[in-house]
Amino acid sequence: MSRSMIFAVLSAAALAVTQSPQALAQWKGKGEAGAVIARGNSDADTVNIKLEMAKELDRWKHGFGIQALRATNDSDKTAERYAAFWQSDYKLDDRTYLFGGLRYEDDRFSGFDYQASATTGIGRKFIDTDTTKFSGQAGVGYKRLEYALTGLVESEAIFAGELKFEHALTETTKIIDKFVVEVGSSNTFAANDLALQVKMSDSFSLAAGIGVRYNSDPPLGLKTTDTITTLNLVYGF
Fold first, then answer.
1. How many Cβ atoms sit within 10 Å of the Cβ of residue 111?
2. Nearest CA-CA partner of 123 in 108, 114, 134
3. How distant, in Å, are the alpha carbons of 14, 55, 199, 210, 228 from that of 86?
4. Tens digits of per-residue pLDDT, 142-199?
5. The whole model's pTM is what?
6. Cβ atoms < 10 Å from Cβ of 103
């Protein structure tokens, strides 16, 4: 289930961006990459990669993203996470839209083999100016998760919500925040990614961020909350 789910999402994304050059030019997005490599008394490696793209056509907007995180310390893995999402929006007016989306996360250190969800609902752009953008969406959906140790699979209906905020502090500096929550009877998942992005050129920026992941009912012996701090080079296209 986990491998087929992520394969379907990534295949759809790959198909979308490998169209003709004219269609490819309609996509906008950004890629982020950060790495830390230490050698000496201890060997440590950390690699963090993100890609997000979006395309608007008439009343429709399609967007997808992938993320990979891997960290080792003296050849022992300390973090490994892979995630992907797809969302399509249909505009009802300039500020209101309906959405349908898929989300997949495989965090090898969360105690879950995977968490996958499909959701639908309504969203609203509360603020949409050149300086500040703030939007939110809420809906319902279906979620499947598998426990890593036991292999137990649970499926349930969920409430899903999301908030996005972006504000330009100066002409070259902006703050970006994204909050996602999925509430079910067996587990509540929440994630928040906050970043400060400084523009260095028309295409490149430097971003310092902190990400938080929360599961209300992780397997026995594991913590409910994980955090990660990143420093990434961002390329906008």
1. 17
2. 134
3. 12, 12, 27, 23, 23
4. 999 888 778 888 899 999 999 999 999 999 999 999 999 999 998 899 999 999 999 9
5. 0.84
6. 25
**What is the rounded CA–CA span in Å between residue 83 and residue 214?**
15
Kind of pairing, strands 28-38 and 44-57? antiparallel
What's the rounded Cα separation, in Å, for the pair 144 and 114? 8
Tell me the C-alpha distance between 143 and 124, whole Å: 23
Greatest alpha-carbon pair distance for the chain in Å reads 59
Supply 144's token pair.
């499947």
Alpha carbons 147 and 144: distance in angstroms, whole number: 10
Q: Provide the domain count of the chain.
A: 1
Among residues 91, 155, 161, 164, which one has the least CA distance to residue 121? 161
Supply the CATH number for residue 20's domain. Answer: 2.40.160.40
Q: What is the pLDDT of residues 71-116, one digit of tens each?
A: 888 777 777 889 999 999 999 999 999 999 999 998 877 778 889 9
- 20 is in which domain, residue-wise? 2-236
Which two tokens mark 100? 């349908």
Helix (H, G, I), strand (E, B) or coil at 4: helix
Residue tagged 């953008």 (tokens): 133
